[in-house]
Design brief:
By secondary structure, the chain is α/β, with parallel strands linked by helices. It has 2 domains: 329 residues, Zn peptidases (Aminopeptidase, 3-Layer(aba) Sandwich), CATH 3.40.630; 84 residues, no CATH class. The protein has 15 helices and 16 strands. An 8-stranded mixed beta sheet has the order 1-2-4-3-5-10-6-7, sandwiched between helices. The chain has a 4-stranded antiparallel beta sheet with strand order 14-15-13-16. Helix 1 packs antiparallel against helix 12 and helix 4 packs parallel to helix 5. The longest helix is centred in the C-terminal third of the chain and has 25 residues. The chain is globular. The termini are far apart.
């Protein structure tokens, strides 16, 4: 898209800085596209939930490219919403943005909101052409209750980004249903992090699915998204970057310690890979970088959002420039489960070889569930898009399906986060 968002970053930051004295409310809306609370305050505060609702409704009303619908309700009764941006016709590529899974990480949400508006209102030929060929889906606030309380977890204290296997939360279930129904080719997950000065302090960190069950071609595309598009886009915009979870030597830049970023299947970037989407986690630095940012929190806030927008720029370029490769990788991965006979791994990562205990070298044909087990996990299997066959009051779940590698992670007792211990069936 020729760095379409790069231009918007500059314009949005200028707008936010200038908007401190600008009028807000209905009169201001008449002057042009709607603005977020973050923008109208010049970054002095984050957009409130009522402001977000009004903003999204205004964007939806003003553009025939967008649709807004509720996909769930949180424990405290707040809506979980999905925005769709694109033309009327089905597209070959679908991109899903997941914003603020952690309620105390607001910069990704602000970037998502302005991106929704800017895509909806853009008139340039490049963006129109992009949206003719790409459907962009956005969950603007994936954790509304946590956002209201300014907490990492939801109203029950659950970290939603550790619930993409168990699906115990309304938030996790809503996301799973979107992934099942929309089958996004790219899932882009926006977060923030606290720096460790000297070793872990880049303005942007990113990481692809490390789970070993991710299809190799999907894994390759996710790695390319991170290392060839997102991080370089951040650098071009003047922001430093690194790999999430890896401390580096401040002198040599060499990795010295891994503190996060394994292959856990319950984390969204890994779940995305298991479901044959090109997944990426991005994290922007919360802490002030300069004395000026320490003295002016709004300046720090604007830098956080601008980093997210610059990174998103790279992600859009990735989709635009590699759409045929992405589609080929995700489509083939979804079909391979019907024919694959290879191993399944219950542990390990792309930088951490699996042990023999973590390797199902000769996986079973499927798993038999009792009636009680099936009643307990049927909804979760359905949300994951896993096909099951009723059998004798219980069910049989075959491996021969699109989600082949996911089945043992859900039903085999050797998997760390399995839902239930199904009985392996080896007579195919």
């Amino acid at each position: 898209m020729q760095r379409r968002i790069r231009t918007i970053v500059v314009a949005a930051c200028a707008l936010a800085a200038a908007a401190v004295t600008a009028p807000a409310g209905p009169a201001a809306a008449d002057a042009g596209p709607p603005r977020t609370g973050f923008e109208t305050s010049g970054g002095e505060r984050w957009t409130s939930q009522p402001e977000e609702q009004s903003f999204l409704a205004a964007v939806d009303r003003a553009s025939d490219r967008t649709s807004l619908r509720t996909i769930g309700t949180t424990g405290q009764g707040r809506p979980l919403q999905l925005v769709r941006i694109g033309g009327d016709r089905p597209t070959a590529n679908t991109m899903l943005l997941i914003c603020s899974q952690h309620g105390d990480e607001p910069s990704g949400r602000e970037a998502c909101l302005t991106t929704v508006r800017d895509l909806a209102h853009a008139r340039d030929a490049a963006t129109r052409r992009f949206l003719d060929r790409t459907t962009v889906l956005v969950i603007p606030t994936a954790n509304p209750d946590g956002r209201a309380a300014d907490t990492r977890g939801n109203a029950d204290g659950i970290d939603i980004n550790r619930d993409h296997i168990a699906l115990k939360t309304a938030e996790g279930r809503a996301t799973a249903a979107v992934i099942r129904d929309q089958r996004p080719d790219v899932i882009y997950d926006l977060h923030e992090y606290g720096a460790t000065p000297g070793y872990y302090d880049k303005e942007l960190l990113s990481l692809w699915p490390r789970n070993l069950n991710t299809d190799p071609k999907v894994h390759e595309e996710a790695h390319t998204l991170s290392e060839t598009y997102v991080r370089p886009a951040a650098h071009e915009a003047g922001f430093s970057s690194g790999i999430y979870g890896i401390w580096t030597d401040p002198v040599t830049g060499e990795p010295v310690k891994q503190v996060a970023g394994d292959g856990q299947e319950r984390i969204l970037r890994n779940t995305a890979g298991l479901k044959h989407s090109v997944g990426l986690l991005v994290e922007t630095r919360v802490d002030p970088l300069t004395d000026e940012e320490k003295a002016d929190p709004a300046l720090n806030n604007r830098r956080r959002v601008a980093t997210q927008l610059a990174s998103l720029d790279g992600a859009f370029d990735f989709v635009d420039e590699r759409r045929s490769r992405i589609e080929a990788a995700t489509t083939l991965a979804r079909l391979k489960g019907f024919a694959d006979r290879g191993p399944v791994w219950t542990g390990g990562a792309d930088n951490d070889p699996a042990t023999p205990e973590d390797t199902l070298q000769d996986p079973p044909c499927g798993y038999r569930l009792t009636a009680a087990q099936y009643a307990d996990v049927k909804d979760e299997l359905t949300l994951h898009g896993i096909v099951s066959k009723p059998l004798g009051g219980g069910a049989y779940v075959p491996l021969r399906q699109s989600g082949r590698a996911l089945v043992p992670l859900l039903l085999d007792e050797r998997a760390d986060y399995h839902l239930t211990s199904g009985r392996p069936v080896t007579a195919c």
